[in-house]
Design goal:
260 residues, alpha/beta, 2 domains, five-stranded mixed beta sheet
């Protein structure tokens, strides 16, 4: 198959590695990290990239996003089918399945997960010194801080907005552990040291667990079983199911509205 993958840059290294091992030809396109913080804007950007896919060029378009603050809800395609992993957020990708992530969540609540992408994106974008320093959210946070902060700043001014931001993120102090999801092929990046330093500064216990590339590999290899992936055809729109399926479909009359 010839596949188009549109994904968050958080997964750049892992998807490139898996694409190189796939029998399929994989055309990778990465969007800037952080769209889950502003899902309305992020949804528009992802939809725009889907709209830009040429007709009849690819066998399928794979989206490298989990539900991630409902960023997927409302997306649709005009021609080439979409393939969507059934995942609440990208941490499921790095752990190999949503089931393993759920087990980890129950066994070790209060854990903030780090991957190569989470560490490298923050560094590359110069997060140090930003008002967001110390408020870098995990993908499943559900809070759209940047969007919310800007709205508060318009209404109440910068000082009050900063105070409200601090209060609204107080729950983050309940974190007790920082966990690096580790892959053998990334050992040369010395991610342990970076993650350990962050945990030390925050007073968290550091741990490291082995990652699992199997879900990433299935994304670029296929086939895509219904238990793990949602297939979206023209005339269908992605919706959140609120159950173990995570994402589902709603039928609609196919129009050009919202498709470009």
């Amino acid at each position: 198959m010839f596949l188009k993958v549109i994904a968050c840059e958080i997964a750049t290294r892992e998807l490139q590695f898996c694409a190189a091992r796939s029998k399929n030809l994989v055309d990778l396109e990465f969007l800037p990290q952080g769209h889950h913080d502003t899902p309305a804007t992020g949804r528009e950007e992802v939809q725009s990239r889907i709209n830009s896919v040429p007709e009849e060029k690819y066998d399928a378009v794979v989206l490298g996003y989990g539900l991630c603050s409902r960023i997927l809800v409302g997306l649709r395609t005009r021609h080439t089918c979409l393939v969507i992993p059934r995942a609440h957020d990208c941490i499921s990708f790095f752990l190999g399945s949503k089931e393993r992530y759920e087990r980890r969540f129950l066994e070790r609540p209060g854990t903030y997960y780090y991957t190569s992408g989470w560490l490298e994106c923050a560094t590359r974008r110069g997060a140090k010194g930003s008002i967001w320093t110390g408020v870098s959210l995990p993908a499943n946070s559900g809070l759209n801080l940047k969007e919310t902060y800007e709205e508060w700043a318009r209404k109440f001014g910068e000082d009050q907005a900063r105070y409200l931001l601090e209060e609204s993120t107080r729950w983050m102090r309940s974190y007790t552990h920082g966990c690096l999801i580790d892959f053998d092929f990334l050992q040369h990046l010395d991610l342990d040291r970076a993650a350990q330093q962050i945990c030390s500064e925050k007073g968290w216990t550091f741990e490291k667990i082995a990652g699992d590339l199997s879900l990433f590999q299935r994304m670029v290899d296929g086939p895509w079983p219904d238990s793990e992936f949602l297939i979206v055809h023209p005339g269908e729109t992605i919706t959140a199911t609120g159950d173990d399926n995570i994402v589902g479909l709603e039928q609609e009359s196919l129009t050009t509205d919202g498709l470009g």
